[in-house]
């Protein structure tokens, strides 16, 4: 239980479902029995677009602005991450890209689980894109091989756009969520 995981909600739009999916993962993947987990909501973080003169890898962690210092301190305090990523035009959301781009040392080499969701391809294009960025860039993060992907369907939602019964609808995705958490616990 000593390792600390940040579970990042990667979508910030007003009518998002990402927060519900993050909550579902938190409650159904078994992650809280293995780690101390905090939810990190990028909507609450409200980071502006990256606005330092130097690139993050040249910053030597000397942020000049309060929001950068705050974000740096927060991400630095985690041993690993779960990224809950929506799929927008086959990619992940811009707020998540910006939040990742802000930092360097604070992410570097840390293990991560990617949870994606979407309609046609269940967010797998978004997940593949995110994996590429986390692993192949100088961030060199260790993405767990199991990347739970949730296939959304219109029938899951009521007329207000809320999940009718997320636990029932997401039952088929639970095993992969648990498997990814097992892999994460083996990554330390
Ligand atoms: C700008 C935008 C682009 C989208 N593009 C895709 C897509 O390429 N593939 C897909 O399966 N769903 C796509 N969708 C549908 C999203 O998967 C769905 O709206 C999901 O709820 C988005 O996550 P969020 O509600 O947490 O923001 C798109 C939605 C938006 C808002």
Automatic annotation (TrEMBL):
<dbReference type="Pfam" id="PF03358">
    <property type="entry name" value="FMN_red"/>
</dbReference>
<feature type="domain" description="NADPH-dependent FMN reductase-like">
    <location>
        <begin position="4"/>
        <end position="146"/>
    </location>
</feature>
<dbReference type="GO" id="GO:0005829">
    <property type="term" value="C:cytosol"/>
</dbReference>
<dbReference type="GO" id="GO:0016491">
    <property type="term" value="F:oxidoreductase activity"/>
</dbReference>
<protein>
    <submittedName>
        <fullName>NADPH-dependent FMN reductase family protein</fullName>
    </submittedName>
</protein>
<dbReference type="InterPro" id="IPR005025">
    <property type="entry name" value="FMN_Rdtase-like_dom"/>
</dbReference>
<dbReference type="InterPro" id="IPR029039">
    <property type="entry name" value="Flavoprotein-like_sf"/>
</dbReference>
<dbReference type="InterPro" id="IPR050712">
    <property type="entry name" value="NAD(P)H-dep_reductase"/>
</dbReference>
<dbReference type="GO" id="GO:0010181">
    <property type="term" value="F:FMN binding"/>
</dbReference>
């Amino acid at each position: 239980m000593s390792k600390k995981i940040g579970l990042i909600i990667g979508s910030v739009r007003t009518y998002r479902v990402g927060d519900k999916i993050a909550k579902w993962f938190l409650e159904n993947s078994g992650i809280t029995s293995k780690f101390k987990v905090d939810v990190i909501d990028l909507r609450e973080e409200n980071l502006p677009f990256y606005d330092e003169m130097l690139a993050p890898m040249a910053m030597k962690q000397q942020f000049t602005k309060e929001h950068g210092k705050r974000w740096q301190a927060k991400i630095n305090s985690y041993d690993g991450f779960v990224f809950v990523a929506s799929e927008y035009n086959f990619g992940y959301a811009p707020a998540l890209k910006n939040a990742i781009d802000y930092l360097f040392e604070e992410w570097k080499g840390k293990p991560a689980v990617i949870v994606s969701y979407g309609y046609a391809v269940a967010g797998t294009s978004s997940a593949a894109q995110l994996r590429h960025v986390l692993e192949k860039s100088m961030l060199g993060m260790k993405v767990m091989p199991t990347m739970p992907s949730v296939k959304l369907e219109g029938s899951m939602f009521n007329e207000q756009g809320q999940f009718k019964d997320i636990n029932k609808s997401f039952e088929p995705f639970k095993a992969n969520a648990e498997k990814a958490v097992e892999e994460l616990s083996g990554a330390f």
